[in-house]
Amino acid sequence: MNASPASPASPASSVELNARQQRIVDALRPFFGAEADALYEANGRSLQKLAYSARQSALPSFRRLATGLALAQELLCEELTTRSVFDTPTAVADFLKLHFAGQPYESFVVLFLDSRSSLIAFEEMFRGTLSQTSVYPREVLKRVLHHDAAAILVAHNHPTGCTEPSPADKALTRVLRDALNLIDVQLLDHWIVAGGQTLSFVQRGLL
Q1: Tell me, what DSSP letter sits at residue 156?
Q2: I want to staple 22 with a disulfide (CB 3.0 to 4.6 A). Which of 17, 102, 108, 162 is the partner?
Q3: Mind listing the UniProt keywords for this protein, alphabetically (predicted)?
Q4: What's the CATH number of domain 82-204, 3.40.140.10, 3.30.300.130, 1.10.443.10, 3.30.70.790?
């Protein structure tokens, strides 16, 4: 379903753009021309919100931006397919942040990995609401077997902006880990993404 690019543009803010915000507007001008300033303001000066709007819109200027975002994600994906995810933790974080950018609902994704811990495939498996997503381990295992994966890395986003894992997040991670162990597949990590912030269960000592 096509969505409008954003709410109607708000009047120009009385607060001037800082240097970073001005660079963003300048980078948006090849896509949106003279409308770049107004669209940036209409999306709350949030590049993440604008990225999400671009992915939902059918307008040509927004589709061009969405294509650019897709190419950036494919560039990161290419790095993950040629090297172990352990060698590229920054690329993993950047890939996930770009995927979830501006998304107003929770979703759960899986990175399927081979025996070298390189990326085989990436799938969004479950979508939810602002604050929760139902995840079915049986369906995850089916896709693991489909891809003949040796390991997986899972992630979901918190649109509320907090990366702190909930008790349900911790319980799900344990259930997935135990279920995967039964078929000799390793759960390497569980990431939570909240805007520009990420949390790794392994780095936190939760997995």
Answers
A1: E
A2: 17
A3: Hydrolase, Metal-binding, Metalloprotease, Protease, Zinc
A4: 3.40.140.10
In the chain, which segments carry CATH 3.40.140.10?
82-204
Burial status of residue 136 (CB atoms within 10 A of its CB: 0-12, 13-18, 19 or more): exposed
Give the pTM: 0.79
Q: Starting from the edge strand earliest in sequence, which strands make up the sheet with 119-127, in order?
A: 119-127, 107-113, 151-157, 186-194, 197-200
**For the chain, what's the residue count?**
207
**pLDDT, tens digit, 9 for 90 and up, residues 147-196:** 999 999 999 999 988 999 999 999 999 999 999 999 999 999 999 999 88
Q: Cβ atoms within 10 A of the Cβ of 122, count?
A: 18
CA 64 vs CA 99, 106, 137: distances in Å? 17, 25, 37
3-state DSSP of 93-152: HHHHHHHHCCCCCCEEEEEEECCCCCEEEEEEEEECCCCCCCCCHHHHHHHHHHHCCCEE
- 16: number of Cβ within 10 Å: 8
